[in-house]
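Q: Could you fold this chain for me?
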Amino acid sequence: MNFVALRILTGGRAKYSGLIFAIAFSTFLLENQSSIFAGIMKRTTSQILDVTDADADIWVMDKKTLYIDEVKSLTDN
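A: Sure. Below is the predicted structure, expressed as structure tokens.
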């Protein structure tokens, strides 16, 4: 059964080359998008990590804070 599947897969050179190219290209796109995501996350968190003035071990922010530059005061409770 595996022999038949391998024979069908490698039967046509154009089909086999197209399949290999498609797999390689989709792998490239997947890695490219994940590296873009990692770069955006690193740039976003670097603004928080670069603050060396505070000796705080915990950062407390409002639940609805969307951006780091957005300053919302916390309630007293």
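A (continued): Helices lie at 2-9, 13-49.
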